[in-house]
Amino acid sequence: MGMKTYRVAIIGCGRPAGSDDRTGAARGYAHWKGYAATGRCALVGLADIREENAQAFAAENGDPAAPPRIFTDYRAMLREVRPDIVSVCTWPALHAEMVIAAAESGARGIHCEKPMAPTWGEARQMAEAARRHSCALIFSHQRRFEPSFRAARRLVREGAIGTLRNLEASCANLFDWGTHWFDMMNFYNDDTDVRWVMGQIDLRAGRRIFGALVEDQGLSYYRYANGVTGLLTTGADGNLGVQNRLIGSDGIIELGVATREGTRVPLRIRGAGDADWRVPDLAADRPQAPGGTMGALSADLLRFLDDEGSPEPELGLSRALRATELIFATYESARRRARVDLPLQIEDSPLVQLAEAGAIGTPA
Ligand SMILES: NC(=O)c1ccc[n+]([C@@H]2O[C@H](COP(=O)([O-])OP(=O)(O)OC[C@H]3O[C@@H](n4cnc5c(N)ncnc54)[C@H](O)[C@@H]3O)[C@@H](O)[C@H]2O)c1
């Protein structure tokens, strides 16, 4: 059986590992490793405003017999290469224009880095473009393929902590990292609709991560349609000491538990009948596909592209939108000083707007 080979292009290559002038994590390399692990992808195009980044990427990952074409203008790349799949690995402010251009160029699949975009309006425009062009759009909420997070959801589904009641998480900020935790809490709760969000943000210093403004401390409390509650606390002073906590009627699961020795326990559970915490074996929760997390999520995208009647990719648009809506609904609750009922009806980023108005936080 001849399985289709997909022609892949990457926008935003980053610097190779070990370079002393890195500007970020060079996610393009991780994306390509995922595609390569499927054995069904050819690297045909690279775009980067720093041509040397694309050259280095091609030298490390390109097929010498059929090297990828290199561009400094991503629009020219889309026009001339017409890739089947495009990865967008630039900073958030560029995601919307690049995803929309890729969808308009006829790409069948797009894998864009998280967070979706710095405003809720741009996130919705990306979604609209993908739907209009019937393009499968996924976002790098890759923890849905990582063993500890999969194990947590499996244990919930098996009833190991009884009925799920409350989800808690903490991290640096609601946007850059928070998008992962909102997505994980949705994942544990079977992507159930959220009814309302109460939030607060403090912006006393004002930091930028990958060019995007983030709060110094934040709080998001929300309720799902099935009654489960979510709580995300952000900033160093708001840290819960665990990355995620799942509280059920008969037990608790914790992920990313900081130990006194400064390491982290990936997952521990104290269920009904457990006298103490136990650390379950995660072997059964490793994805089947080769290439680890990135291989598995790439295989899942190809699975959908092979048969577009099959279920949406695990990292698909509807799930990315749910996580993103929670970010902006939290900001909006801070702006309105009130509970926000979903769906969220705004276009801007209340965080940016509040910062510009000097309306939150205290002077540094
Ligand atoms: N999923 C994750 O776990 C994870 C981890 C780290 C970063 N990220 C996200 O990945 C995204 C990219 O971050 P990174 O760390 O890979 O960045 P990076 O700085 O390592 O790479 C970005 C690349 O984009 C290029 N670029 C900038 N403007 C461009 C343009 N107009 N056209 C083409 N190329 C352009 C830069 O020259 C650079 O090579 C961010 O949104 C970030 O939040 C995700």
Detailed description of the structure:
The mean pLDDT is 96. It is built from 10 helices and 16 strands. Helix 1 links the parallel strand 1 and strand 2. It has 2 domains: 161 residues, NAD(P)-binding Rossmann-like Domain (Rossmann fold, 3-Layer(aba) Sandwich); 180 residues, Dihydrodipicolinate Reductase, domain 2 (2-Layer Sandwich), CATH 3.30.360. It has 364 residues and is of the alpha/beta class. The strands form 3 sheets. An 8-stranded mixed β-sheet has the order 15-14-13-7-12-11-8-16. Strands 3-2-1-4-5-6 form a 6-stranded parallel β-sheet, with helices on both faces. The structure holds nicotinamide-adenine-dinucleotide. The site of nicotinamide-adenine-dinucleotide has 26 residues, from helix 4. Nicotinamide-adenine-dinucleotide binds next to helix 4.
List keywords for this structure.
single chain, 364 residues, alpha/beta, Rossmann fold, Dihydrodipicolinate Reductase, domain 2, 2 domains, eight-stranded mixed beta sheet, 10 helices, 16 strands, binds nicotinamide-adenine-dinucleotide
